[in-house]
Amino acid sequence: MGLHILGKNLWFSILKQNFVETELLSPPPFHITLGLLEKVMKSIDLFKLNGKVAIVTGGGSGLGRAMAMALSEAGAAVAVVDVNEETAQKVKDEISVSGGSSLAIKADVTSISEVNSMVEITVKEYGSLDILVNSAGTSHASLIEKMTLEIWDEVMKVNLTGVMLCCQAAVKQMMRQRRGKIINIASIAGMVIPKPKIFNGGYNYSASKAGVIIFTKRLAVEMAEYGITANCISPGYMRTPLTQKVLKDKKSYKEIINITPLRRLGEPSDLAGAVVFLASEASNFITGHNLVVDGGYTLW
Q: Pfam families, alphabetically (predicted)?
């Protein structure tokens, strides 16, 4: 059909149908063939999650909520899992109001029975499980000379053992399907020691997140033959309830901003694109990767 210059209205309508929510002030300053346009549209389609089913642990607030909403917006049915039933229900309602399909499930990721039930409920409702996002986490800092076994275990059980239990339950279903996407939320604290001494005593948190990263790499290798990929996202300093107390300190806040090349804190919404990418067909040849979302903080 040869070359065509797409008018503003036609171009905008095509982009709008493919999740680009912005208004073009003028037509694109280039010629484009219909064949190329079709390729662009097919590439965009790789990020769509229509017909997929996701579980997001820790989905009731912060990063988990943002990722649950993003997966839903991309087309997935989402089971919002949280130890706090009220917050899980609230996010479920937000998804429903937006036209998405969702479940709210109360579960403690350190409980084998509750984790298994989480998967069973989801599969019973939707028939499959395509995506697992392990976002449940906690923090309880203590100087090493004051660290108790209870404080150590409190963090390790949620942040590392919880990830293992959820992956264990999910892969049993995914192995039968011979497909699946696992996304574990780690942290730059599992990679480097924060330069400003803001989180002194975060031994258990750092160890748990480093454990998540290497656990994910092992999982990626062993699950590859079943068509299952496993990747991490390591956020930097994000504006969440978990970091709210620290970020109220003006000196600490300024130090973080000065070290971060992009000169700002991360927002929960900054993980939206990352989680949709790793959950979608666009990342089919990526596994065992740790995607760092930190505004450049770890570049120094």
A: adh_short_C2
Report CA torsion sign: 9, 10, 13, 15.
Answer: negative
Please work out, in degrees rounded to the nearest 5, the angle formed at the alpha carbon of residue 124 by the alpha carbons of 97 and 222.
105
Active site residues: 205
Whether the CB-CB separation of 147 and 97 falls below 8 Å is answered with no
Residue 62 Cα distances to 67, 238, 267, angstroms: 9, 9, 9
Enter the tokens of residue 169: 């339950």
Q: Which CATH class is domain 52-299?
A: alpha beta
Crossing angle between the packed helical segments 162-177 and 203-223, to the nearest 10 degrees: 10
In tens, the pLDDT along 78-107 reads 999 999 999 999 999 999 999 999 999 999
Q: Kind of pairing, strands 32-33 and 3-4?
A: antiparallel
pLDDT tens figures, 205-256: 999 999 999 999 999 999 999 999 999 999 999 988 777 776 777 888 888 9
Q: Which two tokens stand for residue 25?
A: 């002030």
pLDDT digits (tens, 9 = 90+) for 141-170: 888 999 999 999 999 999 999 999 999 999
